[in-house]
Design brief:
With about 150 residues, the protein is an alpha+beta fold. About 25% of the residues lie in helices and about 35% in strands. The protein is built from two helices and six strands. The protein has a five-stranded mixed barrel with strand order 1-2-3-5-4. The radius of gyration is 20 Å and the shape is elongated.
Length: about 150
Protein backbone atom coordinates (compact mmCIF):
# COMPACT_ATOMS: atom_id res chain seq x y z
CA UNK A 1 0.00 0.00 0.00
CA UNK A 2 2.89 2.36 0.61
CA UNK A 3 4.02 2.04 -3.03
CA UNK A 4 0.90 3.63 -4.52
CA UNK A 5 1.54 7.17 -3.22
CA UNK A 6 5.16 6.96 -4.36
CA UNK A 7 4.13 5.71 -7.80
CA UNK A 8 1.52 8.46 -8.06
CA UNK A 9 4.08 11.15 -7.15
CA UNK A 10 6.58 9.74 -9.65
CA UNK A 11 3.94 9.62 -12.39
CA UNK A 12 3.03 13.26 -11.75
CA UNK A 13 6.69 14.27 -11.78
CA UNK A 14 7.22 12.49 -15.09
CA UNK A 15 4.06 13.79 -16.80
CA UNK A 16 4.13 17.41 -15.56
CA UNK A 17 6.85 18.65 -17.96
CA UNK A 18 4.97 17.23 -20.95
CA UNK A 19 1.73 18.91 -19.85
CA UNK A 20 3.44 22.27 -19.32
CA UNK A 21 5.25 21.96 -22.66
CA UNK A 22 1.89 21.65 -24.41
CA UNK A 23 0.63 24.77 -22.66
CA UNK A 24 3.78 26.65 -23.72
CA UNK A 25 3.33 25.54 -27.35
CA UNK A 26 -0.32 26.64 -27.32
CA UNK A 27 0.73 29.99 -25.89
CA UNK A 28 3.41 30.35 -28.58
CA UNK A 29 0.88 29.50 -31.29
CA UNK A 30 -1.46 32.17 -29.93
CA UNK A 31 1.39 34.69 -29.92
CA UNK A 32 2.31 33.81 -33.50
CA UNK A 33 -1.31 34.39 -34.50
CA UNK A 34 -1.00 37.85 -32.93
CA UNK A 35 1.70 38.72 -35.49
CA UNK A 36 0.94 40.55 -38.71
CA UNK A 37 3.20 41.03 -41.73
CA UNK A 38 3.22 44.52 -43.20
CA UNK A 39 5.18 45.91 -46.14
CA UNK A 40 5.65 49.47 -47.25
CA UNK A 41 7.88 52.43 -48.00
CA UNK A 42 9.61 54.33 -45.19
CA UNK A 43 8.09 57.82 -45.03
CA UNK A 44 9.92 59.14 -41.96
CA UNK A 45 12.30 58.10 -39.20
CA UNK A 46 12.04 59.54 -35.70
CA UNK A 47 12.73 58.54 -32.09
CA UNK A 48 10.33 57.49 -29.37
CA UNK A 49 11.09 57.42 -25.64
CA UNK A 50 10.58 53.84 -24.52
CA UNK A 51 9.42 52.48 -21.16
CA UNK A 52 13.00 51.88 -20.03
CA UNK A 53 14.04 55.46 -20.81
CA UNK A 54 15.80 54.50 -24.02
CA UNK A 55 15.15 56.29 -27.31
CA UNK A 56 13.79 53.82 -29.86
CA UNK A 57 13.84 54.30 -33.62
CA UNK A 58 10.32 54.87 -34.91
CA UNK A 59 9.84 54.32 -38.65
CA UNK A 60 6.58 55.42 -40.27
CA UNK A 61 5.75 53.46 -43.40
CA UNK A 62 3.18 53.93 -46.12
CA UNK A 63 1.27 50.72 -46.76
CA UNK A 64 -0.60 50.35 -50.07
CA UNK A 65 -2.34 47.00 -49.64
CA UNK A 66 -5.31 46.58 -49.32
CA UNK A 67 -5.92 50.33 -48.91
CA UNK A 68 -3.42 53.19 -48.42
CA UNK A 69 -2.55 53.91 -44.78
CA UNK A 70 0.41 54.70 -42.55
CA UNK A 71 1.82 52.66 -39.68
CA UNK A 72 4.43 53.66 -37.08
CA UNK A 73 6.85 50.81 -36.43
CA UNK A 74 8.67 50.76 -33.09
CA UNK A 75 12.09 49.25 -33.85
CA UNK A 76 14.94 49.40 -31.29
CA UNK A 77 17.55 51.86 -30.01
CA UNK A 78 19.73 53.21 -32.83
CA UNK A 79 22.81 51.63 -31.20
CA UNK A 80 21.13 48.22 -31.31
CA UNK A 81 20.25 48.56 -35.00
CA UNK A 82 23.85 49.58 -35.71
CA UNK A 83 25.21 46.54 -33.82
CA UNK A 84 22.78 44.29 -35.73
CA UNK A 85 24.05 45.69 -39.02
CA UNK A 86 20.60 46.97 -39.87
CA UNK A 87 20.17 50.33 -41.61
CA UNK A 88 17.05 52.14 -42.68
CA UNK A 89 16.44 55.38 -44.60
CA UNK A 90 13.42 57.17 -45.95
CA UNK A 91 12.27 55.90 -49.33
CA UNK A 92 13.42 52.31 -48.69
CA UNK A 93 11.08 49.32 -48.86
CA UNK A 94 10.70 47.24 -45.71
CA UNK A 95 8.68 44.28 -44.54
CA UNK A 96 8.05 43.74 -40.86
CA UNK A 97 6.46 41.13 -38.61
CA UNK A 98 4.63 43.24 -36.04
CA UNK A 99 2.61 42.50 -32.94
CA UNK A 100 -1.10 43.23 -33.26
CA UNK A 101 -1.75 45.97 -30.72
CA UNK A 102 -3.99 48.92 -29.96
CA UNK A 103 -0.94 51.14 -29.39
CA UNK A 104 -0.14 53.96 -31.79
CA UNK A 105 3.44 52.69 -32.14
CA UNK A 106 3.53 49.08 -33.28
CA UNK A 107 6.32 46.93 -31.74
CA UNK A 108 8.31 44.97 -34.34
CA UNK A 109 9.27 41.31 -33.92
CA UNK A 110 11.38 41.05 -37.09
CA UNK A 111 12.22 43.61 -39.78
CA UNK A 112 13.52 43.15 -43.33
CA UNK A 113 15.01 46.01 -45.34
CA UNK A 114 14.09 44.85 -48.85
CA UNK A 115 16.11 47.66 -50.46
CA UNK A 116 19.36 46.56 -48.77
CA UNK A 117 18.74 42.84 -48.22
CA UNK A 118 19.11 43.15 -44.42
CA UNK A 119 17.14 41.50 -41.63
CA UNK A 120 17.09 41.79 -37.85
CA UNK A 121 15.07 40.08 -35.13
CA UNK A 122 14.29 42.68 -32.46
CA UNK A 123 11.90 40.98 -30.02
CA UNK A 124 11.00 37.48 -28.91
CA UNK A 125 7.55 36.01 -29.52
CA UNK A 126 6.83 36.98 -25.91
CA UNK A 127 7.48 40.63 -26.96
CA UNK A 128 10.69 40.85 -24.93
CA UNK A 129 13.32 43.18 -26.46
CA UNK A 130 16.47 41.48 -27.71
CA UNK A 131 18.77 44.11 -26.26
CA UNK A 132 20.00 44.63 -22.73
CA UNK A 133 19.62 47.66 -20.48
CA UNK A 134 22.94 49.05 -21.70
CA UNK A 135 21.82 49.04 -25.33
CA UNK A 136 23.72 45.93 -26.42
CA UNK A 137 21.97 43.79 -29.01
CA UNK A 138 21.28 40.19 -27.96
CA UNK A 139 19.24 39.12 -31.01
CA UNK A 140 19.84 37.13 -34.15
CA UNK A 141 20.12 37.94 -37.82
CA UNK A 142 17.26 35.68 -38.81
CA UNK A 143 17.32 33.06 -41.55
CA UNK A 144 19.25 35.08 -44.12
CA UNK A 145 22.05 36.42 -41.93
CA UNK A 146 23.64 39.82 -42.12
CA UNK A 147 24.10 41.42 -45.49
CA UNK A 148 27.58 41.10 -47.01
CA UNK A 149 28.11 44.85 -46.79
CA UNK A 150 28.53 44.66 -42.96
Amino acid sequence: MRCRPIILVLAIMLLAPALFARVDEKEKDALRAALLTVEGTVMSIDTFSGDEGDDLVLATIAIEDPEPREMSLLLAPASVLLQAGFEIETGESIRARVFVTEQEQTPVHKVFNLSRGQEARLRTLMRMPLWDSEGRWQGGWGRHGRSDSH
